[in-house]
Amino acid sequence: MSERALTVFDRPLKDLAEEFNYTTPLRRIEIPVALYTQFLKLYDRARDLREKLTMVMDDGEHRLLLQEGRLTTAFNLPHEDFQRAENDQLGAFLKSFNPYSVARRTKEYVSLQPAQVEGFFHVFSAAHNVVHGVFDMFRQSEYLQYQRYLRDELAIKYAGPTSLQEIVGFHFTLARTHKMQTAYLAELGHGRGPSSNLMGM
């Protein structure tokens, strides 16, 4: 997993537990309801991102445009399945746990199972990798220039699915989630929040 993906959770749960010298098996982790709600928003954005990217990569028109562009133009274009493996891995992580059912809920806090925390970590990291993979593709290829060439020079309007809205939506939701989690961790550092957010019970 690349370093750029370690944004929402700094490291897997087992490493966090070791850092806190927490050797008792963890059965639940308490976080504020607001932060959990934000995690769910980001999870949903990751799911939408994965679904839309799959639609784009599977679309016959999109695949044909890239294939013909490589054969008939000098544009540097990505392969039509340039991120298939990363997108499939994200799909597997999305299905690996249930993010919506919590072990215990109060007015202010929810209790997550360790598998849910690990699940969120893997989903957010994998989706972050997917998004930055797309950004890297935009920078390193001439995909966007080719799309403009089709539209402006050849008057060919692409009518297939797009994923830019989902890419941007995940990116900004990730930034908001990271800000909320950073603020919560700062509160814990000052002795506020639940008596322990890592609970081995």
Overview of this protein structure:
This protein has 201 residues and is α+β, with helices and mostly antiparallel strands. It has one domain (28-194). The chain is 60% helix and 6% strand. The protein has helices at 13-19, 33-58, 60-72, 84-94, 114-140, 143-152, 164-189, and strands at residues 28-32, 104-105, 109-112, 198-199. A 4-stranded antiparallel sheet has the order 2-3-1-4. A hairpin with a 3-residue loop joins β2 and β3. α2 packs antiparallel against α7 (164-189).
In short:
The chain is α+β, with helices and mostly antiparallel strands and about 200 residues long.
Spell out the blueprint of helices and strands:
Layout: H1 13-19, E1 28-32, H2 33-58, H3 60-72, H4 84-94, E2 104-105, E3 109-112, H5 114-140, H6 143-152, H7 164-189, E4 198-199
Antiparallel strand pairs: 1-3, 1-4, 2-3
Highlighted features:
7 helices; single chain; disordered N terminus; elongated; 201 residues; alpha+beta; 4-stranded antiparallel beta sheet
Structural category is: alpha+beta
User: Count of DSSP helices?
Assistant: 7
Number of domains: 1
Beta-strand percentage? 5-15%
Care to count the β-strands? 4
